[in-house]
Write a structure and sequence with these properties.
binds (2R)-2,3-dihydroxypropyl phosphate; binds manganese (II) ion; cell membrane; alpha/beta; eight-stranded mixed beta sheet
Length: about 425
Amino acid sequence: KSSDLDSIEKYMKNNYVTPNVEYTGVAKGKNVFVIHLESLQQFMIDFKWDGEEVTPNLNKLYHEDDTLSFDNFFNQVGQGKTADAELMLENSLFGLPEGSAMVTDGTTNTFQAAPAILDQHGYTTASFHGDVPSFWNRDNAYKSWGYDYFFSSDYYKIKKDYEVGYGMKDKIFLKDSAKYVEQLPQPFYAKLITVTNHYPYTLDKKNQSISKTDTGDKTVDGYVQTARYLDESIGEFMNWMKETGLDKNSMVVLYGDHYGISDNHKKAMSKLTGIKGFNDFDNAQYQRVPFMIHMDGLKGGINHTYGGEIDVLPTLLNLLGVSDKNMIQFGSDLLSKDHPQVVAFRNGDFVTPNITKVGSSYYNTKTGKVDKKIPATEKAKLSNKVTTELSLSDRVINGDLLRFHTVPGFTKVNKKDYSYKKSTA
Ligand code: GP9
Ligand code: MN
């Protein structure tokens, strides 16, 4: 065991956040769907274009009484984009400062990831994605994370017209995934990764059901069309859940993985949002992405807690009644009253309910104005927390430290037990 791990274990112990007991185990034994909403930003929720809601199905879910919706939930990805989001959501570890940890360390490192944890609590685990299995090294990283199944594009009948951009069109993908989902022994943990709402936001004519925006920025104006298409695919999926009765014994978690419109498009964002002179502060605020947890009978509502992707695993484990007490996780339960509302970005910037740091500037989160009156000690305290956690997380990944870390009741994943090759029999 390394001394490096000792200091990290100590940090975990000293900073452990007790989850909200009111929610402990409310989803125990339920199936879990994790639906990855590609490039979907929070501002699309309730957004109107041409007199219409762009995402009516997601809006409906967002406002339902049995959906826990978050409106201050941020993506925290770095260069690994989708891969960083997946890594954070299922491991509560940050992506690396450069590259994608799923690619560089996904094959060789030891992990204590959501699929492995839930597998050991009787769950069948599967990931679904309509792109080639090697993208982001998923076919290897998923073994390290303990996924029983990985349904990649190998498992779908791809016909002419089925694909756009990085893979299958979402409606076809979700529809064709359903037949596999229906065969999974319950309870299951199923992650479905959509992809049509991906840069450069192109979509065939017959699937366009709302007009493009008119900012004049070509890479931005198709965004509402692919976002609408993604939304319709989710609407169809929720209908399928009702038809099968799966809505009665499942929890559905939806999240946007990262921004769709990068900070190279501030002019267009200014036009879309009506914010004059859309600046770096605004860009930081627009890193908000949807995060919703929907389940029959869940005590829901719109929750204003500040948090991000790093916090998902602890939040879900608590709902599922699985203790994370001895795990190395850099996030914490979003529903806990003690949840520290400091959202770290991968470059060391951060957002709290009061302060937003971008580069060397500190803004008042509420007014958007640079705030010169924030005490230096306060800035240092927050910056320190953020950089400490990012660098400790990097040490876990770079040093493969989880290979030394034991969690009572958790058995190490043996990658050799897994194969995602489609049998030809
Ligand atoms: C492709 C996909 C895209 O398989 O998940 O990843 P991104 O470009 O968003 O990181
Ligand atoms: Mn992505």
